[in-house]
Specification:
Layout: H1 18-27, H2 31-34, H3 36-41, H4 56-100, H5 105-120, E1 124-129, H6 138-142, E2 145-146, H7 151-156, E3 161-164, E4 183-189, E5 198-204, H8 217-235
Parallel strand pairs: 1-2
Antiparallel strand pairs: 1-5, 3-4, 4-5
Helix pairs in contact: 4-5, 4-8
């Protein structure tokens, strides 16, 4: 034992001496595998000199550090994605509840146009409808965007939901708000007995809001709710 070490294996600085650390590690051989944070803090020392010799131990430690960093990045991405998905789900539920509170079909369309952009955190929400027989009331049609028969198939083909971040709309889909829209989600409104074929359009000024490959289940759910509510109000007996 050197002069600066006490009998308890501690040096004058109050930290364990090297032999105490070595003794602990021999008694706990799995310590570094359990405490990866300690492993990361260790400085790597090559066991051989010369460029022609590969230090496999050092390579394994560096690989372990890389895997740990990758796992941390994946975990952070998962947390961010989960929070984002929860926010979108919460906003979708709020939009559905608002639509369920509509007192007439005209009120429903106003909620879609005026309330849903705020509830869904987008810039524009529109309802585009093809002609139907009998026609909808003038008040309802004044709040929707009329598109010609067959336009839905021309715009989204056989998709139930079409997502794009490169849209260039001339006002056909988003009316006066077309100049704002950079990305969009277009969900098919399927025809019913009196429900016209149409599109529920969600537009955003950000290219990142909607994009191909994005999950579309909640957007499709919104469109199905619109269908059911339209059907309910259009089939309701008039006074």
């Amino acid at each position: 034992m050197t002069e600066d070490q006490g009998n308890d294996g501690m040096n004058d600085g109050g930290t364990p001496d090297e032999e105490s650390v070595a003794t602990f590690l021999r008694a706990n051989p799995d310590f570094l595998s359990r405490r990866s944070d300690v492993m990361e803090a260790l400085s790597g020392v090559s066991r051989w000199d010369g460029e022609t010799v590969v230090d496999f131990q050092k390579a394994m430690v560096e690989r372990l550090r890389g895997e740990i960093d990758h796992m941390r990045a994946c975990t952070n991405d998962l947390i961010v994605t989960s929070r984002s998905n929860l926010s979108v789900q919460t906003r979708t539920h709020a939009a559905v509840l608002a639509m369920l509170g509509a007192e007439s079909i005209e009120h429903l369309v106003r909620i879609i146009n005026e309330d849903m952009p705020l509830l869904l955190d987008v810039d524009v929400v529109t309802l585009c409808l093809e002609p139907t027989t009998p026609p909808l009331s003038q008040e309802t049609m004044a709040q929707t965007i009329a598109i010609p028969t067959g336009a839905v198939e021309q715009i989204i083909g056989n998709h139930e939901v079409f997502l794009t971040n490169t849209i260039k709309d001339d006002g056909t889909l988003f009316g006066a708000g077309a100049g704002l829209v950079r990305s969009a989600a277009l969900a098919r409104i399927r025809a019913g007995r009196r429900v016209p074929t149409g599109l529920l359009g969600l537009g955003s000024r950000s290219h990142a809001t909607f994009h191909p490959g994005q999950g579309s289940e909640l957007i499709l759910f919104l469109a199905r709710v619109v269908e059911r509510l339209f059907d309910r109000w259009l089939e309701a007996p008039t006074a």
